Amino acid sequence: MASATAAGSSPGPAAPQAPTSRRSVTGTRKAVAALFLLPALVLLGALVVYPIGYSLIRSFYDQSGDSFAGFDNYRALFTDDGIRTALKNNVIWVVFAPTVATALGLIFAVLTERVRWGTAFKLVVFMPMAISMLAAGIIFRLVYDQDPDKGVANAVWVGVHDTFAESSAFPKAHPGRESPLEPAGGGAFITKEPVSAGQTVVLPLVGVAPDLMPDGAEKAAAARPEDGKITGTTWQDFTRGKGVGQLNGVDAAELGYAGMKIEAVKDGEVVASTKASGDGTFSLPAAADGALLRLPADNFAEPYNGLSWLGPSLVTPAIIGSYVWMWAGFAMVLIAAGLAGVPRELLEAARVDGANEWQVFRRVTVPLLAPVLAVVVVTLMINVLKVFDLVFIIAPGSSQDDANVLALELYRKGFASDQPGIASAIAVFLLLLVIPVMWFNVRRLRREVRR
Fold first, then answer.
1. Candidate from 3-12, 29-38, 91-100, 216-225 with smallest mean pLDDT
2. Would 398 be classed as within a structural domain?
3. Which domain holds residue 207?
4. Where are the beta strands (DSSP E) in 12-113?
């Protein structure tokens, strides 16, 4: 009965509720949240919003900042030779640097996944990230030094070159006073008179420092005459000490030109050739009778000194190489983390279906790592758009114009050339270049969240 009465009775007025304060989604009062965010917003405005706004406004004014210049500063971006070179180099950077660094990171991550010492290898590859761009620039300025005795790159390059192409041991050698030799053009030397069978010939030279003589050089010896042959000696006709030694004569303290090439030339054709032994003596067959003896130019060619890594043609690829050295470890670590989350069942299923390792890598591993690869590439693209330190430190003054990039040109226009309007226009242009990449990255992240 009581239940029926209760059920049939009309509900009473609702009890009054206490007024609720406006709160954020986290349950915090919005006023408190705004108060805590205020310092960050002030810093954001002072360090980000204000500089961007000021640069945008300043880009429309002339050098003095008093007169409105309109779009003249932006027009200079496409007419100034220095800025156009910088823009071209930035395109090269954006295309190649992220691609090469990501590819190397992918290779390192995949190859070290099953190796016992893979962690140690990853540590070594990632270690360059621990140093600053300034330090890396100084390191690679030394690595790319032109002198093979200082620059590692040229030391390796010259070593490989000399393995396949023998370099000259006598680059500074030349005839001395009253020598029987005379220049033959192109750096070669030739005897003034023809030689005959049974004759002993002397071919004295000077100009090679004693400490630069070949290791196989021995004390020079006077050649002995032989019937039907031409014999002779080619040597360093120099003895330390004033007035010591006989001119154009072999002395006991003088060294032979070991390995010197001698050619017998008749009517412009080489009829015989030989090389001097360790003591400088040589012998030519009877075919050389009546010929002139020539020391060819390759005896005196300057030694190969490597590549001009920091010259106008190679400076940008060389600096990109130093950037890849630093950032390949970053790409490897991110890709290795993504690789750890790849389902092993898919890889094993592909192998069971008959796929080889290359097919598994190309058709399974890489597609599954596509989101991670996109993160790495986009991050590196944003990074290379503002590269400055490496170019400024590594490129010497003679080739800095050829290695120029937009961030460096901004610095040069703003400080070296005192053109703040154009520098501000470059800064705004760089911001416009970065925005599409950032927008793509944000869209990709939101798409990943929805999944």
1. 3-12
2. yes
3. 181-299
4. none
